[in-house]
């Protein structure tokens, strides 16, 4: 194997064309050690980097030597944001930067390679600009699991352990350090617009809007009011995202406006959790004392963020056009939730949307009241309650209770999705149990690394999650009616 960048690789500099007031060129930290812990070969292949040898990989993704055709030096992006509803103008990339932009060789879309833990920037405030190794491992697990669950997410591209000892209040310290590279279709967030609105930088706002339309939502550019059309695209994409989180039982934890990407892609995984049982009040972040970002309040949190985004766009459009789109968020979310939930169950969305919404509402109600295990229920009810699946389950007695028997009767009245039959034949569906990502599993994976430097549990977990992703692809969850352009399934 020749250890090089493929000739098809295309570095890009789109973000620089916005102008220097959007970012600060920065230098990466120099780390005492570089130990490659994770590389995403499927995505490396997709951008023409699969043939990079380990030394070169580390040069680019831990020492941040520029990639050909992209930025000569990394860019710390400028943004503000509401954190827990309080406006903070002192944000910006404080421990990361936009390292490079590249073309996806499969679908032609622009991709960002952004970092986490790459050193201090003008936005670090008093913090160290570093990422803990545990934080990096958690981000790998979150992104892999979300992708396997049919959630539109950033991908973890690389993780290199860096040999520093970090002090953290939320981890036993000193704790190990790492630098992570994330692949995502943009790092422009609601907070990027808020910063320009507060500073009354109208020309720059116009440029940012045009840039996001050109690179991420070109169809909006064809509308009579491209700004309102952009708002509609992003409202729709984020309503789908929050529905995907809901159907995956995922609690992001920190839904501040600086963590909401204009692509509707989920990213920035800190205190996230997957639910064990349906619990509307489950709160992931220990610092979220009031449960603002609890599981069932995620739609409301995103809706609130969209209000702040709409306020930025009104001067370029018209309140009379922005407001009805904002008001339509809940209906979009409910429809997306119905579609995503039924898709997970391998069932077709009925023509009658209100009926679908009602069924799915009852489904989550039953899940909540019965305290049934979240993933196990989706696994057992694949196909709407096929007798052999129910009988094979350790939960079988539950499905005979009146509430579940009634629910299953309703699900059985729906048509199967096209992917159901091949999905039922998939080894994942034939297995004993669903692949989950509960906190005890995450802690056990971390503890093997921390105590024994044993990386096998992580590698084995990733392999099992990818088997679940292959199953989800067969089911049509990654390319159904809810597919986004980058959900072209990878070769599994
Ligand atoms: P987050 O909660 O990860 O979205 O981060 C919120 C803000 O704090 C962003 O501006 C981050 O860049 C910054 N930040 C978080 N952790 C660190 C750190 N260890 N060093 C510097 N800045 C940080
Ligand atoms: Mg963030």
Describe the structure.
By secondary structure, the chain is α+β, with helices and mostly antiparallel strands. The protein has a domain at 11-190. Helices cover 41% and strands 12% of the residues. It is built from 17 helices and 13 strands. Strands 1, 3, 7, 8, 9, 10 and 11 form a seven-stranded antiparallel beta sheet that branches. A hairpin with a 2-residue loop joins strand 5 and strand 6. Helix 7 (298-313) runs antiparallel to helix 8 and helix 10 packs antiparallel against helix 13. The longest helix has 23 residues, at 226-248. The radius of gyration is 22 Å and the shape is globular. It starts with 10 loop residues before the first strand and ends in a 17-residue tail after the last helix. The model is unreliable at 485-492 (pLDDT under 50). The site of adenosine monophosphate has 16 residues, from loops. Magnesium ion (MG) is lined by residues 258-259, 268.
């Amino acid at each position: 194997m020749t250890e090089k960048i493929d000739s098809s690789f295309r570095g890009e500099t789109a973000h620089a064309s916005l102008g220097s007031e959007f970012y600060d060129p920065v230098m990466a930290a120099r780390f005492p050690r570089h130990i490659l812990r994770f590389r995403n070969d499927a995505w490396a292949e997709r951008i023409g980097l699969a043939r990079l040898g380990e030394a070169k990989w580390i040069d680019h993704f831990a020492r941040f030597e520029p990639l050909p055709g992209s930025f000569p030096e990394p860019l710390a992006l400028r943004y503000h944001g509401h954190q827990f509803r309080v406006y903070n103008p002192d944000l910006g990339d404080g421990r990361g930067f936009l390292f490079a932009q590249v073309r996806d060789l499969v679908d032609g879309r622009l991709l960002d390679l952004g970092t986490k833990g790459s050193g201090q920037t003008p936005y670090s405030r008093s913090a160290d600009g570093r990422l803990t190794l545990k934080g990096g491992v958690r981000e790998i697990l979150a992104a892999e699991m979300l992708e396997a669950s049919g959630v539109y997410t950033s991908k973890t591209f690389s993780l290199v352990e860096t040999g520093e000892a970090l002090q953290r209040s939320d981890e036993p310290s000193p704790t190990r350090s790492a630098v992570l590279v994330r692949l995502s279709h943009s790092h422009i967030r609601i907070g990027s617009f808020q910063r320009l609105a507060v500073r009354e930088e109208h020309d720059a706002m116009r440029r940012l809007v045009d840039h996001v339309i050109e690179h991420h939502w070109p169809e909006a550019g064809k509308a009579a009011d491209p700004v309102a059309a952009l708002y509609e695209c992003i409202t729709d994409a984020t309503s789908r995202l929050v529905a995907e989180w809901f159907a995956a039982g995922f609690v992001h934890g920190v839904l501040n406006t600086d963590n909401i990407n204009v692509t509707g892609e989920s990213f920035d995984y800190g205190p996230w959790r997957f639910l064990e049982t349906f619990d509307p009040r489950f709160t992931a972040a220990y610092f979220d004392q009031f449960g603002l970002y609890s599981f069932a309040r995620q739609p409301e949190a995103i809706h609130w963020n969209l209000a702040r985004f709409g306020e930025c766009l009104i001067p370029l459009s018209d309140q009379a056009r922005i407001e009805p789109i904002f008001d339509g968020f809940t209906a979009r979310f409910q429809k997306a939730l119905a579609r995503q939930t039924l898709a997970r169950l391998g069932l077709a969305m009925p023509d009658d949307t209100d009926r679908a919404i009602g069924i799915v509402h009852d489904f989550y109600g039953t899940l909540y009241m019965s305290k049934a295990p979240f993933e196990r229920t989706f696994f057992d009810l694949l196909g709407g309650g096929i007798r052999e699946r129910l009988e094979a389950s350790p939960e079988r007695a539950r499905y005979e209770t009146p509430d579940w028997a009634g629910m299953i009767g309703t699900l059985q009245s729906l048509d199967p999705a096209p992917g159901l039959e091949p999905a039922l034949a998939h080894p994942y569906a034939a297995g004993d149990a669903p692949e989950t990502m509960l906190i005890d599993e995450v802690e056990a994976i971390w503890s093997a690394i921390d105590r024994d430097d044993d990386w096998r549990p992580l590698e084995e977990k990733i392999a099992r999650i990818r088997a679940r992703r292959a199953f989800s692809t067969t089911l049509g969850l990654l390319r159904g009616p809810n597919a986004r352009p980058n959900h072209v399934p990878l070769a599994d």
